Amino acid sequence: MARDLRLLVDRAATPIGDLLVVVDEQGYLRAADWADHEARMRHLLRLQYTGRNPRIEPGAAAATAAFAAYFAGNLAAIDRLPVETGGTEFQRSVWSELRRIPCGQTLTYRALAERVARPTAVRAVGHANGSNPISVAVPCHRVVGSNGTLTGYGGGIERKRWLLKHEQVTL
């Protein structure tokens, strides 16, 4: 029988759409995704927590407040959020490295692959980046193409562009 994983969700209004913020009972951020992509978020949670039966219920106020502060201009507010993810060891290594990209900077997929000691796994790194369950706080939006161009983002390129400008990245 699957062990239940109780997850608490809240909705944060942002300048670029409502953000769903999901934490566990200990306050670890487990997911953050745009409300118009809720089905994808729930699907990723089921994939990452196979055998855990994630149940999502209302209530994630502390993490939501950190996102509100980020969108209000306190860009470091989300850096302090504790995160916990499922996923494979490789995915978790990529997501961990994403958190090391400083606000206001970008990194290419190739450089990210080198940072996780898999320099020839650029496509796999791109796939792991695209499977990141924690938008904004695990900043997959800071990863760009090899020539510095904006490439895919689960929330859409316009949101990625907005987030990078919000973080004062020159595009």
* Classification by helices and strands: alpha/beta
CATH topology assignment of the largest domain: Arc Repressor Mutant, subunit A
Helix content: 25-40%
Low-confidence runs of at least 5 consecutive residues: none
Based on the coordinates given, report the CATH architecture of the largest domain: Orthogonal Bundle
According to CATH, the homologous superfamily of the largest domain is Winged helix-like DNA-binding domain superfamily/Winged helix DNA-binding domain
The count of helical stretches stands at: 6
Distance between the termini: 50 Å
Written account of the structure:
With 171 residues, this protein is α/β, with parallel strands linked by helices. It folds into 2 domains: 5-80, 2-Layer Sandwich (Double Stranded RNA Binding Domain), CATH 3.30.160; 89-166, Arc Repressor Mutant, subunit A (Orthogonal Bundle), CATH 1.10.10.10. Helices cover 34% and strands 17% of the residues. The strands form 2 sheets. A 4-stranded mixed sheet has the order 3-2-1-4. Helix 4 (109-115) packs across helix 5 (122-130). The longest helix is centred in the first third of the chain and has 11 residues, at 38-48. The chain is globular, with a radius of gyration of 15 Å. The model has no long low-confidence stretch (mean pLDDT 89).
